[in-house]
Amino acid sequence: MALFFKIVPQNNKGLVEVLGKYRKSVDPGIHFYIPFFQGIKKITLAMSPLKLPNYSVITKDNADVSASVTLNYHVTDAVKYEYENTDSVESMAQLVRGHLRDIIGRLDLNEALGATARINQELASAIGDLTNTYGINVDRINIDELTPSRAIQEAMDKQLTADRERVATIAQAEGEAKSIELTTKAKNDAIVATAKAQADATKTRAEAEKYRIDTVQTGLKNADNKYFQNQSINAFTELAKSDTNTIVVSNDQVGSFGQLPVVGQLLNSGTQKIKKISNKKVTRK
Fold first, then answer.
1. 146: which DSSP letter?
2. How many other β-carbons are positioned within 10 Å of the β-carbon of residue 185?
3. pLDDT higher at 253 or 185
4. What pLDDT does residue 277 have?
């Protein structure tokens, strides 16, 4: 009887069938079988990637989202994988899609878009034990994309633009309000400083005037008749230089008017000055 052989590679499992019926499993290596009567199927146990194409998911707030999932799996039970399911990989993919729809369906759009890590954890936990039914274990699962529909994206872009404009408007208003506040404070400070400076200047002038008056009064207390006579001489001298034609003096000074040195000098200074003095009108008081 002719024998054929088949080599089962490393990290594979061989399933021996007799007349189409599973008989036993064999490990990697060389195995002989009778052709047409027996057969050996090779099932890889290595980790395999699987990308689930984009499919629609509805969120809690009825937003249409396109989900893209990538996962890695490996066969844990070759018999279950081969004989208990017509397509274990597709069955696993449907299980993943169903649980993903359930998880995202409990979340609002904004919450779902910002919680992919949590969704990954919940999804891996939900399908972990169930995939054993298909002889498969999911080692890693990751949501690559959650993309809202075009209409939702346009609405989100408009809302984002409006939010940015609102924030910019508020920031501008706050800046203008702060500028007005600082300007008003600066003006008020300037007014207060000016008023204080004017008050200090007034006080200084008042103190100076008081000092002058006190000094004059002190000097007048110690002044004698000679001082007042000197003041009279100075006064008449100034009157002589002016165009005034009326001089007012007291009665007690009329008799001595001619004895004033300045008058004597004027009388002796020439005809023109005497004429000028004679034109002045002396009024008794």
1. E
2. 10
3. 185
4. 45
Predicted confidence at residue 278, as pLDDT, reads 46
CA neighbours closer than 13 Å in the CB half-sphere of residue 81: 20
Please name which of 36, 23, 28 lies closest in space to residue 6, comparing C-alpha atoms: 28
The DSSP element (H or E) to which 5 belongs, if any, is strand 4-8
pLDDT in tens, 53-70: 888 888 888 888 888 889
Distance CA 266, CA 253 (A): 18
The DSSP bridge partners found for residue 24 are: 16
Q: What is the DSSP letter of 86?
A: S
What H or E segment, with its residue span, contains residue 153? Answer: helix 150-221
Q: Is it the case that residue 231 has pLDDT exceeding 70?
A: no
Which tokens belong to 209? 């005037």
Q: 93 vs 89, 123, 163, CA distance in Å?
A: 6, 12, 39
Distance CA 164, CA 158 (A): 10
Q: Can you read off the two tokens belonging to residue 135?
A: 């002889």
- Report residue 10 as tokens: 């490393």
